[in-house]
């Protein structure tokens, strides 16, 4: 009986070890404002076809802020225009409320408290930290951008989310 229990425990542990994300299915982001100061971090992990994103902000203006994955992994201040438009490999319009939407890079709004801190936890099947059409690892990479205003989830192409106030290049998490 003891031997059977040990075998079952070994199989369970082996199965749990297999659930850990591979090196190419995890990513990190260091968000910086136009002055170059760190204003947050984000971690992305993929399990199956779902990418979980957890963004922790600090020192950001209180209120709601649009958050998007942008098509180019470049964050040149002061306006972060180098990050290009929203990540949109499917060629769709912007926003979850748009009947023609949404961009793969469209994410929920970030709610920042009076002390400048905020947290966004979300998951999406529209992007990939692996390979394929929705992969963030294309030739020019991708960036995560926080905007000055909230996203209205319908206005194409930006959701009326205003200026880009923070940007970070999405990078593979080292092994």
Short account of what is shown:
The protein has 175 residues and is mainly beta. The protein is 9% helix and 31% strand.
Describe this protein's structure.
With 175 residues, the protein is mainly beta. The chain has one domain (21-172): Superoxide dismutase, copper/zinc binding domain (Immunoglobulin-like, Sandwich), CATH 2.60.40. Helices cover 9% and strands 31% of the residues. The protein has one helix at residues 2-17, and strands at 26-32, 38-47, 50-57, 63-65, 67-70, 110-112, 118-124, 143-147, 164-169, 171-172. The strands form 3 sheets. The chain has a 5-stranded antiparallel β-sheet, with no helix packed on it. A 3-stranded antiparallel β-sheet has the order 5-8-9, with no helix packed on it. Strands 4-6 form a two-stranded antiparallel sheet. It is globular and about 40 Å long. The N and C termini lie far apart (39 Å).
Shape: globular
Radius of gyration: 18 Å
**Biggest sheet character:** 5 strands, antiparallel
Helix content: under 10%
User: Beta-strand level of the residues, as a percent range?
Assistant: 25-35%
CATH domain class name: Mainly Beta
CATH architecture: Sandwich
Number of domains: 1
- Count of discrete alpha- or pi-helical segments spanning 4 or more residues: 1
CATH superfamily, please? Superoxide dismutase, copper/zinc binding domain
Strand order of the largest sheet: 7-3-2-1-10
- Written as H for each helix and E for each strand, in order along the chain, the element string is HEEEEEEEEEE
User: In total, how many beta strands?
Assistant: 10
What is the CATH third-level topology name? Immunoglobulin-like
Distance between the termini: 39 Å
Mean pLDDT: 87
- The class by helix and strand makeup works out as mainly beta
Query: Low-confidence parts lasting 5 or more residues at pLDDT below 50?
Result: 1-23
């Amino acid at each position: 009986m003891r031997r059977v229990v040990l075998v079952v425990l070994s199989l369970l542990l082996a199965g749990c070890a297999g659930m850990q994300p591979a090196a190419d299915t995890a990513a990190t982001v260091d968000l910086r404002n136009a002055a170059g100061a760190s204003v947050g971090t984000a971690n992305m992990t993929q399990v199956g076809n779902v990418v979980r994103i957890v963004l922790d902000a600090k020192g950001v203006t209180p209120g709601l802020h649009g958050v998007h994955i942008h098509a180019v992994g470049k964050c040149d201040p002061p306006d972060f225009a180098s990050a290009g438009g929203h990540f949109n490999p499917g060629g769709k319009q912007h926003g979850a409320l748009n009947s023609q939407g949404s961009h793969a890079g469209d994410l929920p709004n970030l709610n920042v408290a009076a002390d400048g801190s905020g947290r966004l936890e979300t998951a999406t099947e529209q992007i990939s930290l692996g390979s394929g059409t929705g992969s963030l690892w294309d030739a020019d990479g991708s960036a995560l951008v926080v905007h000055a205003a909230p996203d209205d989830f319908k206005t194409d192409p930006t959701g009326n989310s205003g200026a880009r106030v923070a940007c970070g290049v999405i990078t593979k998490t080292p092994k």
